[in-house]
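To: structure desk
From: M.T.
Subject: fold request, one chain
Message: Could you run this one when you get a chance? Sequence is below, nothing fancy, just the single chain.
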Amino acid sequence: MASNTTPLWLFDLDNTLHNASHAIFPTINANMNRYITRVLEEGGHPSDEAAVNHLRRHYWKLYGATLLGMVRHHGVRIEDFLHEAHLFDDLPGMVRAERGIGRWLQQLPGRKILLTNAPRRYSRELLRHLGLHRHFSHHISIEAMHVHRQLRPKPSRLMLRKLLAREKINPRRCILVEDTVDNLKTARELGVRTAWVTQYLIGNAMLGHLTAQRVRSRLPSYVDVKVSSVRKLPRRLAKLGAAR
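Reply: Done. C-alpha cells follow.
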C-alpha cells in the first residue's frame, strides 16, 4: 500500500510525452477547420479561412478546448467533433518522440495517471504505440472529464478538484506535468505541484512567438520546475517534493 507521502503524477500527453507539433497538431487543426467551416456554413455565418482560424483559437483560449466553444455556441455533438478532429491516415507514422521515455517514467516514484484533453481512442492508440500504457494506473481522457454532467476539461478547477478527491490525495503530494501553462496555473491554485515541459514549444510556428517568449522568460511563480524534457524529471525530484 502506498504511503501518504508517495506522490501521484498527472501527465499530459500531447507535447509532453511526444512531439505533437511535428505532424499531429497540424492535422488536427486542419481537421477542426474543415468541421468548423461546415458548421459555420450551415449556420449562415462567415466561413472564410481567417474567420475559422480565429474561432478555433478563440475558443481554445477562452475555454481550454475548441470543442467546448463549438458545443456551447454551435450545438455540435461532442462525439462528432472529436471524431472529425482526430482522423488520421497514418497516426503511427506521424509520431515523433524521444527514446527511453518509459525508463524515465519508471524512475519516478509513485503512481501515474494520464490526464489529457485528447479523446480516448486517439490517446490509447498513441500510448500503446509509444509503449507507455503499462506505466499509467489510470487513463483520463476528455470524455471522462464531466462534473455535474457538464464537460470540464483542463484547466477546469472543478474537474481537478474532483480528481483529487476521488484519489484521496493531498494536493501537495500531486504533481502535474504539462506543456500548457494555463493548466499548470490552475493546478497550482489548488495546491498541486507543477512541472513545465518546454522542448516542443520553442520554435513551434503553430504556437507563435508569444509562447516562445514565455518559455525563455523568468520562471512563472506557479511553476515548481521547468524542464526541456520528461527525461530530466528524475533529477528534479527533490525540487518537486518527491524524493525517494
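Reply (cont.): The two ends are 16 Å apart (CA to CA). Let me know if you need anything else for the meeting.
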